[in-house]
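Input set for joint prediction.
Command: fold jointly, output tokens.
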Amino acid sequence: MEFEYRRRINYYETDKMGIVHHSNYIRFLEEARTYWMDELEMSMSELEKEGITIPTLEVDCKYKNPVTEGDVIIIRHKITEFNGVRMLVKYNVTEEKTGKTVIEAYTRHCFTNKELRPINLKKHNLKYYNAFEKYLVKE
Amino acid sequence: MEFEYRRRINYYETDKMGIVHHSNYIRFLEEARTYWMDELEMSMSELEKEGITIPTLEVDCKYKNPVTEGDVIIIRHKITEFNGVRMLVKYNVTEEKTGKTVIEAYTRHCFTNKELRPINLKKHNLKYYNAFEKYLVKE
Amino acid sequence: MEFEYRRRINYYETDKMGIVHHSNYIRFLEEARTYWMDELEMSMSELEKEGITIPTLEVDCKYKNPVTEGDVIIIRHKITEFNGVRMLVKYNVTEEKTGKTVIEAYTRHCFTNKELRPINLKKHNLKYYNAFEKYLVKE
Amino acid sequence: MEFEYRRRINYYETDKMGIVHHSNYIRFLEEARTYWMDELEMSMSELEKEGITIPTLEVDCKYKNPVTEGDVIIIRHKITEFNGVRMLVKYNVTEEKTGKTVIEAYTRHCFTNKELRPINLKKHNLKYYNAFEKYLVKE
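tokens >
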């Protein structure tokens, strides 16, 4: 299962090159993940109230074509690895009008308690474990 | 007593207008405040460990002349009101080479506990109260 | 005429106080302005192609109640002064669920050419002049 | 040849997890590159005046240990591939007091004209070509 998140580029996300600053895409990926969780009636805030958080272990982002203020990007992402301890998410981001690829990326995550020590989500929150498991797309 | 904080402008702080995005100056002001606290052997981290924080109640910033990547700004600021409950800080920011005024600003703050409820710093941390009091410049 | 812009708070917009960093609201206000222009079939990109830009001359923001990741804010704003040379925009931002005021703010702007020299919009782009004029709410 | 850049973490760079938001490290890496260029009497602004820019083609960042406001990081980086058309930079970032690794990263870049079309730096700016060439560390 693949998810789609539509996002307009803001002025403050551009730099003097006239295009989106490359660091901001990392933020858009996070945005896509949290909107997707919202849609599934999960939420980072709910999870954090239980003392669970999902830090990022690695980001890899390949920049293909730039976008700028007023452009709209479509972020498609899917979970390609998940075992309750670690998760890998892959992203393909395109520009809405031209369909051109903007970036290709993946992010690795783990699940931790408040002290940022790794936990197994299966033992700590079965609802979320099942949700992530359900949407796992093996490649 | 007035303080000085020297700061180079980063590429990622510019926008497609080719100059620093106006929201970033609010961050530079915070930076100046925390560096000043460091210099006086105070620190936000230390204060927060005691459950005290210093939220911003108001920001007013007048933009005079733009700066861009590679420029260096000098932030001069002083505490002009302080009573343990509230604090007013005023800033004059200039560009190093030309001496031109970049922004003029002030920020209002209060002191709160972790739940963001107002406290009197005098009762909760006399060391910090005395430090702020000492550097108060009445206008 | 007052405009409304609905906006979810992102994780990356919070700070270690657990709430939105105060500098980010300045960005949300810009977002509201550009979305409003989009709605009226105007756009910053179109304007900038003609060599016109709308720098911010002043920001004043009073912080009333904090919001955090997952919260939704409603930005209501209106143009209260406009003469083709300068513009004043006022904002009231509330949290969707509770209706509580989050911030109250205003921003002052002028219209400039690419070299950031002031121009009169009436002489340089009548379409945009008329649009801003039409939505002026005198107080 | 390896370079070092020392950098204090700002409050506005943290998120509600209490640590630096992972997107900000991408900005710190850019900062390290531009400070290094400054030190060698090169500058992005100078290069951009000639119509040359250095976009990022890829970022890969592995997060090892978190840092927070007030911590100081040391960014050590070196150019490990360079041929005038493309460049690979590797980074090791540690926390000053503990010496712990914070992130390990690399960034890939090319050189382009204003229209973001690839150029060979050797043909367009020999001074900068020679500087990058001189500091190339083959692995």
